[in-house]
C-alpha cells in the first residue's frame, strides 16, 4: 500500500516558470503587455523573488489551526505529509490570526547547504546512500515513514503564495506576502517589487551574483504580476 494517502488540491498547484536569462524577463514583460493590452509606457508592478530549488507544498489552516499539508504531486493531487510537516519549525501550527477561516499557504520546503553537507557526512559514516543534492535530500527527508526522522533532518520553509482562501485575502501579491509574514510565516527577504523592466533586470543580475553565497540552492527568478485582478 502507498506510504502516503492522496489529497486533491482545491486549486491546482501549477509549476512556476522561472526566468533563467534576461531574455526570459523581456519576453515575460512582452507577453503580459500583449495579454493585458497595455502599451510600453504603462507601468506594471511586478514582484520578483528567487525560486528556491526545493519542493512545493500546500498547507491548510482552518480557524487558525494547521490541519492539512500536501505535496505538489502532479499539480492536481499530492501526498498527505501533515505529520512530517508538523515537525518543521518554520511552519506555524497555529496562526496569530484566525481570519480567513480557511487559508491555504503555498511555499517551498528546502534544505540549507550546510545541513545537506552534515546529513551526507552522517549517512557516509553509517555507510548509507548519499543524496545527490539539497533538493533530493529535502524530498527524501519529507517523505519519511517516521516523522521523527524528518524532524532530525533540519528542513526549512518559505511561503510564496496562497491557494484556496474562504474570503478575499488581499488586493496584491505584495500584500499577500506582507500578510503571510504578519501571520508568522517566513517569506524570502530577497523578494522585491518593481514597476519597470530595467530594475527587474538589475535585480536579476544581483541575484545571479549572490547565488553562490546563498545558503540554499536557487534555480532562477520568479516574476509575478502584483495586481491580483490582472492574474
Report on the architecture of this protein:
With 231 residues, the chain is an alpha+beta fold. It contains 7 helices and 9 strands; from the N terminus they run E-H-E-E-E-E-H-E-H-H-H-E-H-E-H-E. A 4-stranded antiparallel β-sheet has the order 4-3-6-7. Helix 1 runs antiparallel to helix 7. It is globular.
- N-to-C terminal Cα separation, in Å? 40 Å
Main structural class: alpha+beta
Element-level helix/strand string: EHEEEEHEHHHEHEHE
Shape: globular
Low-confidence stretches: none
Major β-sheet strand ordering = 4-3-6-7
- The total of helices stands at 7
Sheet-strand content, in percent, reads 25-35%
Radius of gyration: 18 Å
Major beta sheet summary: 4 strands, antiparallel
Question: What are the SSEs and their pairings?
Answer:
Elements: E1 6-8, H1 22-35, E2 46-52, E3 55-62, E4 65-71, E5 77-79, H2 82-85, E6 102-110, H3 113-125, H4 134-142, H5 147-151, E7 156-165, H6 173-182, E8 192-194, H7 197-210, E9 218-225
Antiparallel strand pairs: 1-5, 2-8, 2-9, 3-4, 3-6, 6-7
Helix pairs in contact: 1-7
